[in-house]
Write a structure and sequence with these properties.
The chain is an all-alpha fold. Helix content is 73%, strand content 0%. It is built from eleven helices and no strands. Helix 4 packs across helix 6, helix 5 packs parallel to helix 9 and helix 5 runs antiparallel to helix 10. The model has no long low-confidence stretch (mean pLDDT 94).
Length: 193
């Protein structure tokens, strides 16, 4: 049994890699220990339990996710930023399905409050939407719309749920174009409500 080099960071990255291959729900202490060729007990000096491990994977994934999105939207505004944001979101979700699933894991509010990745995500998303002139409560509603649209689309795509002959990329582009149109006209739509 090789134990040398086992660190918390290495354990968490290995768990994230396992999630991408087998699924986030398949990440267990036992599966991870088998991958390292050690007994389960060896991992407990690096993580407290399965919940702690999954939380750490969620934090790592959130950091990688927002790194990708920030890099994509840097220097862009309006539609260009929305397209870059959407494409980075979709690419991450499809390339890293386990890590993406980890970004949906419910992390305790006190941990979220201390996690820079969650704050960066909120800042980046809000900045992109403010370019459309949105303020609260419209900002919160728009964030929820984008998240549910992107999540739903990528979940269906990742599960092979789009079998029509039309290329999925074309449908994605139309969906993002539709979101841009809606966001561009959001203020007018809410004024009449």
């Amino acid at each position: 049994m090789v134990r040398a080099g086992l660190t918390t960071d290495r354990v968490v990255v290995a768990a994230a890699d396992l999630a991408d291959v087998a699924g986030f729900d398949k990440v267990t202490i036992s599966a991870l220990a088998r991958g390292f060729g050690v007994k389960d007990a060896s991992l407990y000096s690096h993580v407290k339990n399965l919940g702690d491990l999954r939380t750490r994977v969620a934090l790592l994934a959130a950091e990688e996710f927002i790194d990708r999105i920030e890099a994509a939207v840097a220097g862009r505004a309006g539609k260009d930023a929305l397209v870059a944001f959407a494409d980075a979101y979709r690419t991450f979700a499809l390339e890293h399905p386990g890590r993406y699933a980890a970004t949906q894991y419910r992390v305790a509010p006190e941990i979220v409050a201390e996690a820079p990745a969650y704050h960066r995500t909120l800042r980046t998303t809000s900045a992109m939407l403010r370019a459309y002139g949105l303020t609260e409560p419209d900002l919160t509603d728009a964030v929820r719309l984008l998240r549910s649209t992107f999540h739903g689309f990528t979940a269906l795509e990742g599960d092979g749920g789009f079998e029509a002959p039309r290329p999925v990329q074309k449908s994605w582009e139309r969906a993002v174009e539709g979101l841009h149109f809606l966001l561009s006209n959001w203020a007018r739509a809410t004024e009449g409500a």
